[in-house]
């Protein structure tokens, strides 16, 4: 069963997404801030990280940079999640090292397709593959 880490400080969003992913057979772990996310990724090695970009203390862009610049965690796919889908946000996520990008409110079918690319066919969806979409 693929393991997904949800990094989300909003309790309602975190719980709703967790329940929806668990019903579809994913093992879900959660982090409420960047420090917790880095610790969990390092120890639990999830298959995919769903990273809220608007986190307290250290934002999701900085957290992703840390994960991608650490040898032990660099290969773990990170999908950015944000309610701020303005001009340049997608590019900022790419520059931070995110492997994909999605907007809130979450459209589950679209997000599941992105997750599926990483957990079911990693050789078909290398880091950055979505940039040409």
- Distance between the terminal alpha carbons, to the nearest Å? 28 Å
Task: Label the structural class.
Answer: alpha/beta
Instruction: Return the average pLDDT rounded to an integer.
Output: 89
**CATH homologous superfamily label:** Response regulator
Number of E-state strands: 5
Oligomer: single chain
What would you say the CATH architecture is?
3-Layer(aba) Sandwich
CATH level 1 class label: Alpha Beta
Shape, principal axes of CA atoms? globular
Low-confidence parts = 122-133
- Total number of helical segments? 5
**What is the percent of helical residues?**
40-55%
Organism: Nannocystis pusilla
Keywords: Phosphoprotein, Two-component regulatory system
Domain Response regulatory: 3-119
Modified residues (4-aspartylphosphate): 52
Describe this structure in words.
Helix 3 (60-68) links the parallel strand 3 (48-52) and strand 4 (78-82). It is globular, with a radius of gyration of 13 Å. It is built from five helices and five strands, in the order βαβαβαβαβα. It is an alpha/beta fold. 41% of the residues lie in helices and 18% in strands. InterPro entries: CheY-like_superfamily, Sig_transdc_resp-reg_receiver. Keywords: Phosphoprotein, Two-component regulatory system. Residues 3-119 form the Response regulatory domain. This is Response regulator.
